[in-house]
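Re: the 313-residue chain
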Amino acid sequence: MANKLGQAIARNWPIKLAALFFAVMLYVAVAAQQPITQSFTLRLDVDGPPGRPIKQPAGEVAVLISGKGSELFKLRALPRVIPKAIPDTFSGSIWHWRLQASDVPIPKGADVLVADITPRDIEVRLDSAVHKDVRVASRVTVQADSGFLIQGLSVLPSTVTLIGPAKSVVAIDSVATVATTISSTNGPFFHTVPLDTSPLGPVRVLPREVRVSGEVLPLLQRSFTGVVVTPAATGFAGLTLATERVVVEVSGPEARVQALTRDSLRVVAHLVGHAAPDAYARLTVAAPPGITGRAVPDSVGLKTAPKRKPGRG
């Protein structure tokens, strides 16, 4: 009986072996298409802002991933780290992070679903930071073409905020722009210039760039003759000006200079010395904003004022 059973098993054994192989392969193929769930442990790798170390590691999370067996097989290339960088703008001491499915670094091409993350809410503690507002020091040079005038140069914002360790922030009173030259400019101009953060070390600055603006206008020079000289309020007792009218040369933006009249200018005499013949008057010109002027000559002599005759009673 046993002999006959052995002969039955041995009969046509290649065919039977092939059938067994295909049955196993079919089982594997069917099993690979069935949805299954697998858990992975991933480490959280959190980087703090520059100069602000993290007090303790963020730890690990359990990630539950579901999908077909054939797709889960692709997760052999799954990175076991979830990286995250805390924004430079963050200045608090505790940073909260809620993990999302998109944070899990699923390999490209793997058709799987992140079913759950435990824990999902992460809390990271950092060294404390302080804030301080400091002025912006401009290192911007504007080169106007010959015959043009730079006007209204401004830097906005004029102050920026420092964020960082207290001992580093307290030593900084200003932040300079990167050295920049603006040349061959006519008319209004606007340039974005980065701040020079290289000397700041671990301290961060917000914003990291400023806007430099201004206007380059055609320059016009013009002369006005016969402008009256007015003595200053005090010091001229007993003295009078040897010259009462002078020439005034002005320069400035073309449109403003063209609109000037002789009455727009004021020449003031300031006493130098106390008595004739050594005393004289230095002349200054008061002109509208944006206009520069000088008197020709820039000083005048003085003479003794004639004495008034006593009036008749």
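The helical segments are 2-10, 13-32, 69-72, 166-169, 254-258.
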